[in-house]
Amino acid sequence: MRVDAYDKVTGKALYGADRVLPGMAFAALALAKIGRGRVSGVDTSAALAVPGVLLVETKFDLASPGFLMGGGFGFQSLQPMTDDHIAYRGQPIAIVVAETPVAATEAAEAITAEYEEEPFALHLDSEGATTLVQEEAIPLPFLADIKVGDADAVIDSCAVRIEETFEHPPQHAVPMELNGGVVWWQDDRLIVHEGTQNANAVRFGLAQQLGIDAELIEVHSPYVGGGFGQKNSLLVHIGPLAVVSRRLGRPVKLVLARTQTFHNGSFRPATKHRIRLGADATGRILAAVHEVDQQTSRHDLFIAGHTEVTSRLYGFSAFRGRQRLVQTDVQTPGYMRAPFESPSMFAFEQAVDELAHTVGRDPVQLRLDNDTETDPVTGLPFSSRHVGDCLRRGAELFGWSGRNPEPGSMRAEDGSLVGWGVAIGNYPGSIVAANATLTASADGRVTVAVDGHEMGQGIRSTVALLVARDLGIPVADVTVQVGDTTVGTQHLTAGSWGTATALPAVHSGLQELRKHLNVADTGDVDVASAVADAGHAVQVSVGSLGPGQTADALAQTNTGHLAISGPVFPGFVTFSWIAHFVEVHVEPTTCRIRVPRVVSVADCGRVASPVTAASQVRGGVIWGIGAALREESMVDDRVGGFLNTTLEEYPVMVNADVHRIDVDFIDKPDYQFNPVGVKGLGEVSMVGAAAAVANAVHHATGRRHHRLPIRIEHVL
Amino acid sequence: MKPFAYTAPSSVDAVVEALRVAQPGTKILAGGTTLYDLMKLGVEAPSAVIDVHRLPELTGISVTDSELVLGAGVRMADVSDHPVIRPSYTALAESIWRAASQQLRNMATLGGNLLQRTRCGYFRDADMPCNKRNPGSGCAAMEGVDRPHALLGASSLCSATYAGDFAIALLAFDAVVDVVGPRGERSIPLAELHVEPGEDPRREHVLDVDELIVRIRVPLTEAGRGSTYLKIRDRESYAFALASAAVGLVIDGAGIVTESRIALGGVATRPWRAVEAEQSLLGQPLTAAAARRAGEIAFAAARPGRTNEFRIELGIRTVADAVRTAGERAVR
Ligand SMILES: Cc1cc2nc3c(=O)[nH]c(=O)nc-3n(C[C@H](O)[C@H](O)[C@H](O)COP(=O)(O)OP(=O)(O)OC[C@H]3O[C@@H](n4cnc5c(N)ncnc54)[C@H](O)[C@@H]3O)c2cc1C
Ligand code: SF4
User: Fold this and answer.
1) Does the structure's ipTM exceed the value 0.90?
2) How many beta-carbon pairs below 8 A join chains A and B?
3) In this structure, which topology does domain B226-330 adopt according to CATH?
4) How far is CA A46 from CA A113, A118, A397, A564, B38, in A?
C-alpha cells in the first residue's frame, strides 16, 4: 500500500491551495478576449465597486522569469501584465483580490478592456505562422538534426518503401488539481504553497522576478494533484500573487478556473510527422526518415525532441531526422506526459505496421527482426534493452498467435469488427543531480528528505520501501519529505527520472548513514540502539549525480536550474522500453470503438514498487487510448485560444471507457544506469499505446488513420 | 456571478405565492446543476431564485392502474435504479442511467432535467455572439464548431441541440407534465412542452416564468417493457449524445408490430418524435430492413451543418439498432 494512501483518502493530505490561513484574501484573474494584439485600456471601475474588493491591478513591475528550456524558470518567458502586448487569447490582463472568492470572481468578470486586434495564427499551416528549422534557430549540439548515413539515398534504393504523413492535435493535461496556490510574507520572507513539480524553479524564478534573494523564499509542494508536465515550472500567476500579497500584508489564495488552466499553463503542441521507411522484401528496415513540424509560441521556442526516440527504435543503418518549430499565437506549449514520444510513436509505429502489412510479415515478428543491441545514433551499446522480451512476453500473454493477419477478418460475438494491434515505445533514460538528507532518531525512526515531488506516482512509498528494506525496519518508521525547499533543493520532477534520481540519492545516503551509525554496510540495523550508541540523532547529507555528471550539475540544481543527464552517457545509452498489445472492437452499425483489453509489458529496469509501477502503466495506457480515440484541444480560427476548455467538453477518458489492462514487467535491473538498477517508467507507459490502438483499428477495419483522434465519424 | 435573492418556501402553495409576487428575473432553482452552472458562466443572471430542491411535495414515485407518477423533485439517481421503472419502462431508466454522472444524478431533479439548457459551446461562452443568449447578436455556431449541433428543427437563427436524454424517453411514452402557477394548474403533453428556435431562439418551452412543474405522468403502456434508450457519444459516460433514440415496441404473437414509439435525442432542437418512422413499422414483422428504413424516414428531413453530416447516418443506424433491441425485448 502507498504510505500516504490513508492521508489522501481521508483528506488529511494538504495540497497547494488547500491551505487556509487567518486573514487570507482571494484572488481571481481577468483574461484577454482577443487572439493577439494590444490592450489599449482596462476599465476596472466596475470591479472596484464590487463589495469586498481590496485591490485590482493591471500592471506589474516583474522581470521575466525566463523560459525553462532557455535557462530560465518559467513555463514561458512572457510574464503577462507587464506591458500592453497580448500574445494569445486567455492571457491575464488583470488580477483582483477580494475578501471572498465569489467577490473576486465577480469583480474579475466585471473588468472590460479595449484592444487593438492583430491577425493571429493557430494551426501549423495557418497563414502567418512562422516555420523555423530547429537546428538553425537554436544552434546547440543536442538539438542538431540526427543524421546517420544517407538515409534518403538508402530508402530510394530499397525494394520496399513506406511514406506516410501523420497529424497529432494539440492536447491539454487537465490534471484534477487546478493550478493555484497560497502565498504570504513573513516580514521579508516569501512563503509559497503551490502544487508544483518544480519547487526549485518556483523559488528561483520568483527571486528573479521580484529581485530578491532566493534565500528569502520557501516553496512547499508536498502533494501535487496531477501535474503531467503542466506544473513543471513557474506559472504566470505566482509572481503577481506575491506582489499583491505583500501590498496587502495578507496571505492571498488563487485557484484558476478550469477554463483558465487551458491558457495559463502549457499543453501538448500540435505536430505533423512525415515518415519514410526503406526495407528489404522481408521487412528488414534499412533506413528511416522522420520529419516533424511542431507548434510553439511566438515568444519561446519549445524544443522538439521527437527524433531522439524514433532514431533508436530499431537497428537502422541510416536515419535522418528533421525538426522544425512553427510559431503560432498561443501560450508556450510544453511537456505533457510523453510529450514527443507519444505523438512520434503514433506516427512511426503506424508506418512500421504498414510495412509489416505491405511485406506480409507478422508485426511482432517484424519488430523482433529489427531489434538491435546497439544504439544506431552513437554506436554505443544500450545499457539495457529488453524490448524483444517485452514483445515476446506480451504476445504470449495476449494470445497473439491466434491473430488472423487479414484486416477485417476477425469478429466478436456481437458482430463487432475485432482488431489486434501492437506497437512498441521507448523513452530516454535520465538522471538528474539530487540531494538527500537522512536523519536517524532516538526512537528508531528515519526521516528522509530527498529532491522530488509526489505527483501521484507514489514517490514517498518507493523511497520508504527502499529505506525499510535496506535497514530492515518497518515502512511505518520511515518518514519521507519531498517537494519542500526548506529541506532540499527540489529539482524538477519530470522526464520519468524521479525514481531513478531519488533512489540512487537515498541509496548513497543510506551508505553514508550506516557509516555514521557505525553499523555494517549491509544487513538489518537496530536504529534506536545505534543512535543511542552515537549519543545523538545522526544526520547525513549527500549529493548524487547521474553517470558522467560532474559536481557542476549539483551547483546547477542548487541555483534553481535543470541538471539533467542522459540518455547518452559515457560508454552507454539508456532508454526504457515497452510493448503494447491492444484489442479494439468496432461496433457493427454505430461503429463505436471500444478497447476491451490491453496487455502492456515494460522494461523499466528493476521494478522498485510493484503496485505503484503497475498503476503508472495503467494510467499511461488509459491516456494513450484517450489520445487515440478522444482527446483534442479545439480552436476557433475566428477568436483564438482554445475552445473546449471544460472537463465536459475536453473528453478525457472516464472509467466506463476503461476495461481490462494487464501489466507485466521484465524486471531486470540496469546497474550500469544506476546502483539501484531502476529506469524511468511513468512516461514510457504511454508511449506507443495510441499507436497500438490505431494499428488495431487498422486491423479491424482495413483503414489507416493519419490523424488523431479517431472518432466515430472516421470509421462510420 | 451577480448577487441574487434566495428563498426556500416550505410548500408548493408557498412557492406559488412567492412566484406570484416575484420580481422580474426570478427563477426556480432545483438541483442547480444547470442553473448555477450557467450563473457562474454569466449566461444566466437571475435577480432571485426560489429553491424547490427539498420540497417534500415534489418527491415520490408511484404507480397507479393507468400511469407512472414522478414528482418533479425526484432525483435522477432514484429513477435509474427504481425497481418498477427498470423492467416496465426500460427506456426511461436507461435514459437517466446514461445521462451525466452519478454525482450529477444524485443532485439533479427530473423537473430541472426537462428544462436543462443547450450545451452549445458558444451559448455557454458569454463573450461569443449568440442569438439565444443575446438576441440579434448572431450565431457563432453557424460558421464555427458545429459538430454537436441540431440536424432537425433548426432555424436560420439557431441550431442548438436540445441535449437532455430523459425527455426523449418521456416523449416516446406520451408523458404529460403537470404545472401549477398563480393562474392555477394545467397539464402539458411533453410533446408540446419544448419549442423550436424559429424566430425567437430565447424561447425553449411553453412554461410561463411563474409556473412550477410539480409532476410528470407517464401512461402505462405495454411498449414500456419492449423499450430501449440507445445513446451514442464520444465516451461511455459523462457525455451528451451525438445521436440517441428511445424506442418502444409491442409485437403480437404472430410477430407483427402493433405499437411503435420512436423519439430522437441529441439531433434536434427539441425532443423529436419520429411519427412517420413509427408508422412505417406498424402492421409488419420486424426485420433489419424495416428497422433501417425507420431510421431513414426519421432523418429524411435532416439538414446538416458544416461538420456534422456524419450524424445523419449515425442517427439512422442508432434508430435501427434501437428498434432491433426494443423488438428483442418486446418478444421476450
Ligand atoms: C457536466 C454535465 C453533464 C451532463 N450530462 C447530461 C447528459 O448526459 N444527459 C442529460 O440529460 N443531462 C445531462 N446534464 C444535465 C443535467 O441532467 C441537468 O443539469 C439536470 O438534470 C438539471 O436538474 P437540476 O435539478 O439541477 O435543475 P436546475 O439547474 O436547478 O434547473 C434547471 C432549469 O429548470 C428550471 N426548473 C427546475 N425545476 C423546475 C420546476 N420544478 N419547475 C419549473 N422549472 C424548474 C430552473 O429554473 C432552471 O431553468 C449534464 C449536466 C452537466 C453539468
Ligand atoms: S446555435 Fe443557438 S445557442 Fe448556439 S450560438 Fe447559435 S444561436 Fe446561440
Assistant:
1) yes
2) 64
3) Enolase-like; domain 1 (3.30.390)
4) 12, 27, 64, 49, 21
